[in-house]
Design a protein that fits this description.
Blueprint: H1 2-10, H2 33-45, E1 51-53, H3 70-76, E2 79-82, H4 87-97, E3 101-103, H5 107-110, H6 117-127, E4 134-136, E5 141-142, E6 159-160, E7 165-168, E8 170-180, H7 181-185, E9 200-204, H8 211-223, E10 232-236, H9 240-243, H10 250-258, E11 265-269, E12 280-282, E13 285-290, E14 295-300
Parallel strand pairs: 1-2, 2-3, 8-9, 9-10, 10-11
Antiparallel strand pairs: 3-12, 4-14, 5-6, 7-11, 8-13, 13-14
Family: Belongs to the peptidase S66 family.
GO molecular function: muramoyltetrapeptide carboxypeptidase activity
Active site: 84 (nucleophile), 204 (charge relay system), 273 (charge relay system)
Length: 305
């Protein structure tokens, strides 16, 4: 499986180096806090490293926040990318430095023999972003089966992608923050939590989300006053096993109860625990034009002085 990931990234022109810590196992974590932080900081300092890509997500990136040299990462202008629990690192990086990182595929994503073209194209498009807006296109198909547990890593269980659907209409351009809701909630109250004022917030959840659990996290964000601060909201596409647990009106009712109607809101967005995963710039710009007739979402990054 690793060979597939190496080949897919090599085909894009990258030379991949996998840190030893990626293979560590300390109580179901890839090494101790010190080992994991050292792995990232070595990559930050390495002259041979341009992109720091997580292998996968997990639960404990918040262990690392006070040990990562975010200032040096910003100075070297290296790319930090991942999703799921990596949300903690991406948003902490923005909170500390104002720098742009990327909510997108990890190395594990590239190990998929049936890697979707939309994931690859979204990755390459995001990494060459400028201040000129790039439009994001909804994929036609989606899959969220655990392909890496299957014999031969397939076949994938592709289904029609749920429509990117507007709940609250409006047009807004703002800086994107957020990602995985579980990891984001853990940042609140720390110095690594980004400022939510006038931001566009991305929220997505893990593989088998319970509706009551997702409501609990959203309710917590509401209690913190976050939905009164943001200027736009993107809800990521749910995995198939999660979606089966939700009623058809679940998201509409949830948004109606917790999110002000003046906050433009779109659901089923393709940057989550489903394939394809579109790469988005955390700390970059998202421009949303949302209506019940047509949706347009573009991304860009601030112009470098």
């Amino acid at each position: 499986m690793i060979d597939v990931g190496l080949k897919n990234l090599s085909n894009l022109g990258y030379v991949v180096s996998i840190n030893d810590e990626s293979f560590f196992d300390t109580e179901n974590i890839a090494g101790t806090t010190a080992q994991r932080a050292s792995s990232i900081n070595r990559a930050i300092l390495s002259e041979n490293t341009d992109i720091i890509m997580a292998v996968f997500g997990g639960y404990n990136c918040n262990d690392l926040l006070e040990h990562i040299d975010f200032i040096e990462l910003h100075r070297t202008n290296k790319v930090l990318i991942g999703y799921s629990d990596i949300t903690a690192l991406l948003n902490a990086y923005y909170a500390v430095t104002g720098g742009v990182s990327f909510h997108g595929p990890g190395f594990g994503t590239f190990c998929n023999p049936s890697l979707p073209a939309e994931t690859v194209n979204g990755f390459t498009k995001a990494l060459r972003l400028t201040n000129i807006e790039e439009r994001l296109i909804q994929p036609q198909m989606t899959a969220s089966d655990l392909w890496f547990l299957k014999s031969g890593f397939g076949p994938r269980e592709w289904k029609s992608h749920p429509e990117w659907r507007t709940i609250n209409e409006g047009e807004i351009k703002g800086i994107l923050i957020g990602g995985n809701i579980e990891s984001l909630v853990n940042l609140i109250g720390t110095k690594y939590c980004p400022d939510f004022d006038n931001k566009i917030l991305l929220l997505e959840s893990g593989f088998n989300t319970d509706p009551s659990q997702f409501r609990m996290w959203v309710s917590h964000l509401k209690a913190c006053g976050i939905f009164d601060k943001i200027s736009g909201l993107l809800i990521g596409n749910f995995t198939e096993c999660s979606r089966k647990r939700f009623s058809p009106s679940y998201l509409d009712n949830l948004i109606s109860e917790f999110v002000p109607e003046i906050v433009p809101t779109l659901v089923n967005f393709s940057s989550s625990h489903t394939d394809p995963i579109l790469t988005l710039p955390i700390g970059g710009f998202i421009h949303m034009k949302l209506s019940n007739k047509q949706n347009e979402i573009c991304m860009s990054v601030p112009e470098i002085p």
